[in-house]
Amino acid sequence: MTKILVTGGTGYIGSHTVVELQKAGYEVVIIDNLSNSNIHVLDGIEKISGIRPEFIEGDVTDLPTLRKLFSSHPGIKGIINFAASKAVNESVEKPLKYYRNNLVSLLNLLDLMPEFGVEGIVFSSSCTVYGEPDNNPIDESAPIKPATSPYGNTKQISEEIITDTIYAGAPIKSIILRYFNPVGAHPSAEIGELPLGVPQNLIPYLTQTAAGIRKELTVFGDDYSTPDGSCIRDFIDVNDLARAHVIAMKRMLENKGEKLEIFNLGTGTGLSVLQLIESFERATGVKVPYKIGKRREGDIEKIWADPKKANEVLGWKAEADIDDTMRNAWRWQQRVTPKNP
Ligand code: WQD
Question: 16, 81, 128, 208: which to mutate for ligand 1, most atoms within 8 A of CB?
Fold first, then answer.
């Protein structure tokens, strides 16, 4: 059985990817420092797949920890690297935390891969590297714009680190996946998004509002030059996203494609914030109290993917219907909402 290391594997996208890797017959080892996730995610993964993944609580920025992991788990052939801090606003307040956590972890992995015969790394990147696109849909040839946050900058720098390392002749391969907006939860409601504190992202805030945890959702601006005035995004179901990682890993380990490949992972359809609220209400029958507020600093007006390259080269396509995705998100929120005492 091919062994894969998933860093940040108890996180939102990580846990959904672990389930898909197990379904595809891979043996999974997770390292996570639980700074932004919960150890009980392992129970959810086991409930879905019937397999409890090997778990090491540890920090990928600590080289001795990582070296010990590779030594005690020989035969790891591939890595999917999710371990990173990802809150855009927090990165503006604490840039050093983001540069250290997101870059040192990647440097450690790249350093150790050749030493332990690890052949490839799938890197979790983001459409944030494109900044505000000149036009949409956006494909992989679009220009990389100056980052608008330290978080976004760590993604750009990480991509450059991987590119330079491979071009310098390192005996490794990489596939960089640029996510658009991951949303939803596993249909079993055993795993999903577990934001700590007040959610920054739209869907967790929306579902917490629908559950009565938040009083009302604020739509950050309806005066953008879009059909209904609210921002447009490419909301991709987290299960579709997870499946793309398995396909990418298989492609890399079967030595198909170039040493370094980059793919946009999106649905190819732009939906506005107000349209997403409509989808949630239609799908669940639950009203979401919201008000229109001021624009949020740093928000991109509109961005959605041209997923043609991933569709044709990876043979991957986002399948989920947004209403189904909203139903899954709601089922998960109902699962994790504390019952009235
Ligand atoms: C989406 C839209 C908001 C909350 C960021 C990162 C990206 C990735 C996903 C990590 C925007 C609006 C939001 C709310 C709102 N991060 N919104 N009310 O900003 O597109 O992307 O998160 O992987 O790299 O850049 O996602 O969910 O925060 O916002 O109106 O309470 O929803 O203005 O238009 P974003 P988001």
Answer: 128
